[in-house]
Amino acid sequence: MGHKIVYLGFGSNLGNKEANCRRALERIAASRSNTIQTISSLYKTEPVGYREQDWFINCVAAVKTTLAPRPLVDFLQAIEKQLGRKETFKMGPRRIDLDILFYGSLAVAEIDLIIPHPRLHERGFVLAPLAEIAPDVVHPILHKTVKELFEAIGTEGVVVYSAPPTIAVSSFS
Q1: Count of CB atoms situated within 10 Å of the CB of 159
Q2: Which of 27, 95, 99, 123 is flagged as catalytic?
Q3: Could you confirm whether 85 is annotated as catalytic?
Q4: How far apart are CA 40 and CA 42, in angstroms?
Q5: What's the CATH number where 115 sits?
Q6: Fewer CB within 10 Å: N-end or C-end of the chain?
Q7: DSSP per-residue letters across the chain
Q8: Count of structural domains, the chain
Q9: Residue 40: which domain range?
Q10: Which of 22, 23, 97, 123 is catalytic?
Q11: Is 169 part of any domain?
């Protein structure tokens, strides 16, 4: 498989949230299979679902990858584990959450892998940073641009927090 541009979502609301997102980005960048193209600003976002928790820090990165969707999910889940993610409950607090938002124009519907992310179009915490770096990307199922999807839901509960994180690329064992 050749190189594909994927859009990955990052979220954290436990510990040093900014550092958790930065560390995940650094691990992705350190892989020979991936090249980070663009990183959005960091956004402070209200929790969705279970509200009795800290607000999240979220961002989105455009990544050029040689990994197919399934190996990419495995790679991202390994990073989550390395950074201390523990399984809690659905919509609960997390040290780091990594999601494939788009994988090129591919649509995948398997039991445990759905691309594009199935709730992407409902979530300001994903669409705000995604619209910042990829407003003209078209959702392969809904056939609307990211900008159109974002404009449809608005910015409630989403605040620009800081400039994109600076990452250091090195190797991790």
Answers
A1: 11
A2: 99
A3: yes
A4: 6
A5: 3.30.70.560
A6: C
A7: ---EEEEEEEEE-SSSHHHHHHHHHHHHHHSTTEEEEEEPPEEEE--SS--SSPPEEEEEEEEEE-S-HHHHHHHHHHHHHHTT-----TT---S-EEEEEEETT--EEETTEEES-TTGGG-HHHHHHHHHH-TTPBPTTT--BHHHHHHHH--TTEEEEESPPP-------
A8: 1
A9: 4-162
A10: 97
A11: no
Contact 28, 9 (CB under 8 A): no
Residue 167 domain-assigned? no
94 is catalytic: yes
Instruction: Establish whether 97 is a catalytic residue.
Output: yes
Given the residues 22, 85, 95, 123, the one annotated as active site = 85
Note down pLDDT in tens along the chain; length 173 residues. 578 999 999 999 888 999 999 999 999 999 999 999 999 999 988 776 665 667 889 999 999 999 999 999 999 999 988 887 666 645 557 778 899 999 999 999 888 888 998 888 888 888 999 999 999 999 999 999 999 999 998 777 777 777 777 776 554 43
Is residue 171 assigned to a domain? no
Residue 25: C-alpha distances to residues 16, 63, 75 (Å): 14, 10, 12
